[in-house]
């Protein structure tokens, strides 16, 4: 009987729970709304009730290794306290880990959602054949996760992987973190909309302006991507900026880590066709390690292996599978 | 009897060899000139002869674990070939590793000199109490080395740690690597002299100009540092630029890796007093992980530990000790 684990992806709008066995087979999955407004105790109550029900219904014969929970926020790994979570404000300074462990009577591993997604893609997605990969998740913000030798790189106190806050323009857009020119200010869904609005403001983006006038409520990264695909130059230039910013940050990381692979996921990664050419051009230009490691005629390396830069494969399930992987990996 | 190893630091001008035991005790050290112009075979011959002589003279009773060699260049770890070395041009495409192993009949480990220095500082210098540190070596260029869990982080093909080529200004100074705005273009000894010349050129740096007129042959980072210490504002601004560039790159790495410590070494790090205030100010401004992990009143972290940014302690011997550590660590 293969062992199994429960993965939980606690988002700002959805709470998703899955039972996954140690081979990565999905046994069951449920999605609940996250009624964050009802407060932390309510959400934790819903989560534990749903997990209990799933365990009762499934009656999996294998051993339950524990529960992994991916949360949108920074976690102090030493205590299991959440340090900060914009989407779950009343979860700060709360011992998430020990409270849920006590309620369910089984080990609980807490992880940042972007790290969970990286681990999911490593285990069952784009990164399953490499040992070292870096994932960038393009959503409302830009999340990051570094997987080294198959495990999440935690750093000194579990705060490694904040790749959305790499500086790509030292005199650029002010970021919520206090820095200027963070990657997140150029490569998130939020940034795509902002840059399109800036293009309209600057003039010369009439078709984008018409699009915004026609869709005042949903002028977002998705609709701007559709405009780019249909040949709108101003929209294409927005995605070129996305790609150049990602390329600058990825070039830094290739030079620093020399990892096997970069995986780009998250909702805004659906615009891959629009922004990826600029990533490749920028990394080629900016990283001599990227160029040096590439297979080439007459190249000096006996075993050249180009750093792979690719799309995520698990879509919205990466974080869920990654969360389930956490307790399986610990045992 | 403690085991021991031979460390070799092969620089552009000096070849230094040391016997070091497994506790880090220096048993013997010699320095030879590197007559690079006489070619690779000559240098390797001198090196192997000096090592043989050292072994014969010392007659250390402990086991010789091998020879570690730090070289200024990029090494393909899979083959032991040097990929590129500006200071040792005829060493490219040469099987350094196996040739020296054959000549000396003992295991040889080859490593990039900046990585060796990082390992040396980890073993016996500034980083001896931490498991994860990043070292930046400020010399003619800027070298880097990442030590994770006590070992050099190699990456996919041993090219990790090229931290001098992190982009700190995407539209900045052209670098020899092909990128624009590399850290190396603002924080190396070469860059310090260039930025002082630029300040003179731009006007308003009369005292620096007088200094250059008085010392046309040795207008270098050392003399510019002395001017800064003596209160010259233009010279101080040059070092502020050094500090801001280092701070921008370090902030990126704090956010990405969350390491315990950054160690700044190399010849130009003697100007620490002149550039370090700007490092701290820049990292504080740019890295929320740095701020978040700092101990503070009412802070949320149960175990706050601020990332340490400090000077190297072993001076020019870091690379030599690190090279000796390589074979000791392998066994």
Give structural notes.
Chain A has helices at 40-58, 96-104, 113-124, 184-187, 189-202, 206-214, 221-229, 233-257, 272-286, 288-293, 318-330, and strands at 4-10, 14-21, 26-33, 64-71, 74-76, 81-84, 108-112, 133-138, 142-148, 151-152, 261-265, 308-311. With 331 residues, chain A is an alpha/beta fold. Chain A has a 5-stranded mixed β-sheet with strand order 3-2-1-4-7. In chain A, strand 5 (74-76) and strand 6 (81-84) form a beta hairpin. In chain A, helix 5 (189-202) crosses helix 8, helix 7 (221-229) crosses helix 8 and helix 8 (233-257) packs across helix 9. The two termini of chain A are 16 Å apart. The mean pLDDT of chain A is 91.
Identify the notable features of this structure and list them briefly:
globular, 331 residues, Nucleotidyltransferase, domain 5, homodimer, 2 domains, alpha/beta, 5-stranded mixed beta sheet
Total number of β-strand segments of chain A? 12
Bin the helical content of chain A: 40-55%
Helix count of chain A, per DSSP? 11
* Beta-strand content of chain A: 15-25%
Gyration radius of chain A, rounded: 21 Å
| Terminus-to-terminus distance of chain A | 16 Å
CATH fold assignment of the largest domain in chain A:
Nucleotidyltransferase, domain 5
Largest interface: A-B, 59 and 59 residues
Q: Which structural class do the helices and strands of chain A define?
A: alpha/beta
What is the C-level CATH assignment of the largest domain in chain A? Alpha Beta
Describe the global form of chain A: globular
CATH superfamily of the largest domain in chain A: ATPase, nucleotide binding domain
Report strand order across the widest sheet of chain A.
3-2-1-4-7
